[in-house]
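Hi both,

Apologies for the delay on this - the queue was longer than expected. I finally got the zinc ion-bound model through. Below you'll find the protein sequence and the ligand SMILES exactly as submitted, and right after that the structure tokens for the full complex including the ligand.
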Amino acid sequence: MTLPETMKCLVKAKPEKGLWLEERAVPKIEPDEVLIKIERTAICGTDMHIYKWDGWAEENVPVGLIVGHEYSGYVADIGSGVRRVNIGQKVTGEGHVVGNRSRNARSGRFHLDPDTKGIGVNLPGAFAQYLALPEFNVIPLSDNLPLEIGAILDPLGNAVHTALSFDLVGEDILITGAGPIGIMAAAVACKAGGRRVVLTDINNWRLDFAKKVAPDAIFVNTMEKNLSGVMSDIGMNEGFDVGLEMSGAEPAFNQMLDSMIMGGNVAILGLPSKPFPVDLAKIVGKALTLRGIYGRQMYDTWYKMLAMLDSGLDMSPMITHRFAARDYQKAFDLMETGKTGKVILDWNEI
Ligand SMILES: [Zn+2]
């Protein structure tokens, strides 16, 4: 197959709100890299920060970067040293490109490598017709996994990594925050053997949508209902065994501390937009374990996630909208309303 010289891509071309469709050279691959022809991409909250150009984006993202990190496609070319991946294979990829110098990387804890760079954040991204990626990061997908599900495995990986950071079997689980990752975590927690899985938010649209993805969970709008009342209604009199904090919101975090059992475990993925006070006496008095979560494990989370999808975890209801890539502006406008699950762009239509 002959590759084209140039490709279309979405670029953060100016330090202001928006993304711009540009023509760039198709990336040249190194001996250890794979060239992926992008088929589908999904829009992430991170992309929305970059699109809106908020303080975080201004500090972290270089102007001129091709953005996007949630994608699936087919291998279009491989470097001379690539052995594990073949041309034509259906793939996605881990978006964190790690180094090999730090203690964590040398110890195999790649997800904790401080030299990590992010596809579509620091490195050229996947909102493009082609993406170059180290072979190490390429994840082969089975033929029967739909391309659009392949494009949402990055956030599903966050959900799986957070949810499985503590034993869930037979446990009562509180998830605060019904964003896409919170909703996916609820589905994962149900599938992974959680007993009562309670998902809270303050947005009824998000909670109604979550019912379609995680029908076995229990949904609580904490502005309308008292969580401790719900707990006694469903027969809980001691507290949640496991908490998954997905909101980054101070009231939700405090409510979680108040609702945990003595000795409970809390995994925290939600990133607060500014610091807030925490009553340490509650953490000490309840003997809680708190764990911060970043990214996903390379590559244990990927194996677990693909196995769960293979054994019936259904993520198709997460995808609410599909657009031609050339209509990306409509997709970003819709994302801004907040009333979406995952929004997919089709790169065959550019
Ligand atoms: Zn993402």
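Main takeaway for now: The domain at 6-152+315-346 is CATH 3.90.180.10 (Quinone Oxidoreductase; Chain A, domain 1).

I'll put the files on the shared drive as well.

H.
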